[in-house]
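Weekly puzzle thread! Below is a chain. First person to post its structure in token form gets bragging rights.
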Amino acid sequence: MSADSPDNLRHVTVVGVGLLGGSAGLALKAHDPTIRVAGVGRRMESLRKGLEMGAIDTAHLDLTEPAATTDLVILATPVGAFERHMRAAAALRVGAIVTDVGSTKAGVVRIAGRILGHGRFVGSHPMAGSEQRGPAFARADLFAGATCILTPTRQTPPEVTARVERLWRWMGMRTVRMAPGAHDRAVARISHLPHALASLLMRLPGRRDLDVAASGFRDATRLASGDTEMWRDIFLTNRRHILAAFDDFEEELLALRDLVDLGDGPGLQRFFAAAKKRRDSTVARAIVDRRVAVE
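Winning reply:
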């Protein structure tokens, strides 16, 4: 696959060449092999893997090394490291912009505004990935058909937002714009709470229980295998919305507990039927439709 890159993009720096960062590099080069991708990371071992698989062209332990020629920086490390990388990105050449793939946005946008200025950063959250970690699991089609949430503010120049939006659409994504706070509230319910529940489920069974676990339990707990450093930072930077999601979940859980305690068969069936109907008519259908649309 080859097509001219948006906005004559020639050089991209990916900070954090893991699953998402490595996939971004592979996707960029799959769409336009002439794009040069620099990889920045803490360990040369991961960067070498990125070089071997063709996700990056050069490897660096410091963002300031490729800064002079970079058109765009994609931050793909855990959110807790963003501030440090933004300080290094402040020395980028005029016209270069920064985006990210982080799962929380309000705090990230505030830090970016203070360090980079509102004209050089647009928050991005590609709703793609898996519980797997590292460049070995990166793939060029990871973003195809998925949704990318952009979180510009009132101070973000429209053309800067449009440049980042064109980038993700060029890689096959559907884009949605949300305010940073609205983003954090939404993902607390559809991403962060599910991760917490998967982790809690893994803490409940005993060893003998797990010996007889089957695919249902495996699928329900898949998220618990995620990157622990990344999830630590997510829960620290989105505390308010995650706590609110916990409170709402607790209300629903107690209502369900009451149905079980009362032995209310019709009530239980209505509960499960409502959940099934909502899932089957929304996310189950939408995700399939988006994948079909890009095949």
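Puzzle host: Confirmed. Bonus trivia for everyone else. The radius of gyration is 21 Å.
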